[in-house]
Write a structure and sequence with these properties.
It is a single chain. By secondary structure, the chain is α/β, with parallel strands linked by helices. It has two domains: about 5-70 and about 325-430, Aspartate Aminotransferase, domain 1 (Alpha-Beta Complex), CATH 3.90.1150.10; about 70-320, Aspartate Aminotransferase, domain 2, CATH 3.40.640.10. It is about 35% helix and about 15% strand. The strands form four sheets. A seven-stranded mixed beta sheet has the order 4-12-11-10-9-5-8, with helices on both faces. A four-stranded mixed beta sheet has the order 1-2-3-15. Strands 13-14-16 form a three-stranded antiparallel beta sheet. Strand 6 and strand 7 (about 165-170) form a beta hairpin. The longest helix has 23 residues, at about 325-345. The two termini are about 20 Å apart.
């Protein structure tokens, strides 16, 4: 039966008198055929205002690695709630959570918690400048590090705006953005060590921030030797290397991309899967840099940092991930999905590309060749992919229109089978 979404569309239209566009994040706008109004989640499923049961691959934009209502996390939050909500003091549960982060993450000699990835990024950038006494931060074209004015540059520029590879343009991400906020930010094309080396050897760069796996654009892996080369360059030039592991952290491996790929940054930022949906982020890294928050007058604050309920969720989530069995299950089922999608596209003679990792991979249409950087993905057919995700939704599968697919431990073999069948129907329905 083809699913419809009239109740969601009606409620979104009504809610526009309450919130701009009827939503509270711009990333929820413009979804085809409508942004959804969800009533509840259960395992790998969402149940919406129209009564549809949808297999969910948004997973809250990535956090729900254990699924939508994992008992250990819910029980931990309930137990902590009985002790109180907020204290403006320290709790043992935050120390337990920090101990787990330190145990799992190679760079984590110290940990500070906050609420969002955007906040953690700002803390890391501030620490890099304090540690080096230098002004400039280097980021990469197509990488996303939050929505604040000083970093939301050249995240999704159009081809006509980008400039040359040797000197990418500074393209603001929003109207109303402070035009001076990018004055100490430089943009470099990712996966090109020579271009980065030329920039760092000028000696004025405080920090290099990157997604170690480019999850916000096509789930692009670093080229062999690239991250090792970046690590060496940063060490040679006295530059702080920052990994943005908001997506990759605790998703691609228990220790994140740095553990998976064997390259240790000076600082790293985390969010999303760290607490299976509760608003938690963290900056972790070298003790000498992190302790500048105490010894170097580096300001870092927040009323809700290390919120006890969120710390309970963090500890429960990370304890669930410790033995690696969840990653083994996600590996097997994610591989089945990736290989199944490739087979269906091939059998249906549809040009498409599936790349990435089992827990976070990317599907695009209109291109079969590997996508190696932001500029490559401009050649994909985004309109065709939106038609595909719309057809998937009407067939009971919710997938992100930007191409990312997130897996959880709750996606079992039966869910994968149902998804592959829906994908086959949808690619046929979405043909022009």
């Amino acid at each position: 039966m083809t699913m419809t979404f009239a109740a969601s569309a009606r409620r979104i239209a009504e809610a526009k008198s309450l919130a701009p566009g009827g939503v509270n994040s711009n990333f929820r706008l413009g979804i085809s055929p409508t942004p959804l109004v969800v009533e509840r989640g259960e395992g790998p499923y969402l149940f919406d205002a129209d009564g549809n049961r949808l297999i969910d691959y948004y997973l809250g934009m990535g956090p729900m690695i254990l699924g939508h209502n994992p008992r250990p996390v819910i029980d931990a939050i309930k137990a902590q709630l009985e002790s109180g909500i907020l204290f403006a003091a320290q709790t043992e549960i935050e120390y337990e959570a920090a101990t787990l982060v330190k145990r799992l993450v190679p760079c984590a000699e110290r940990v500070r918690f906050s609420c969002s990835g955007s906040e953690a990024v700002q803390a890391a950038i501030r620490l890099a400048r304090a540690a080096t006494g230098r002004p400039t931060i280097v980021k990469f074209e197509g990488h996303y590090h939050g929505w604040l004015d000083n970093v939301v540059w050249s995240v999704a520029p159009q081809a006509s705006e980008m400039g040359e590879r040797d000197a990418p343009a500074h393209v603001p991400g929003s109207n109303g953005q402070d035009p001076n906020a990018g004055a100490t930010l430089d943009i470099v094309v990712w996966n090109d060590l020579d271009r980065l080396a030329t920039r760092l050897r000028r000696g004025d760069v405080a920090g290099v921030i990157m997604e170690p796996i480019m999850c916000n654009t096509s789930v692009i892996a670093p080229k062999p030797g690239y991250l090792d080369g970046v690590r060496k360059l940063c060490s040679e030039t006295g530059t702080v290397l920052i990994f943005d592991e908001v997506i990759t952290g605790f998703r691609v491996a228990a220790g994140g991309a740095q553990a998976l790929l064997g390259v240790t940054p000076d600082l790293a930022v985390y969010g999303k899967a760290i607490a299976n949906g509760m608003p938690v982020s963290a900056v972790a890294g070298r003790a000498d840099i992190m302790d500048l928050m105490v010894t170097g007058k580096v300001m870092h604050g927040g009323t809700y940092n290390a919120h006890p309920l969120c710390m309970a969720a963090t500890a429960a989530t990370l304890n669930s991930l410790l033995d690696g069995s969840i990653y083994a299950r996600i590996e097997a089922r994610g591989r089945r999905l990736m290989e199944g999608f490739e087979r269906i596209l091939r059998d249906r003679q549809i040009a498409g590309r599936v790349q990435g990792l089992p827990g976070i991979f990317h599907v695009s249409l209109g291109r079969r060749e590997p996508i190696g950087d932001y500029r490559d993905q401009l050649a994909t057919d985004k309109a065709a992919y939106v038609r595909l995700t719309t057809a998937l939704l009407t067939n009971g599968v919710r997938a992100l229109e930007r191409g990312a697919w997130f897996l959880s431990d709750a996606h079992d073999d039966a869910t994968v089978d149902a998804t592959l069948a829906a994908f086959d129907r949808a690619v046929v329905a979405a043909r022009p």
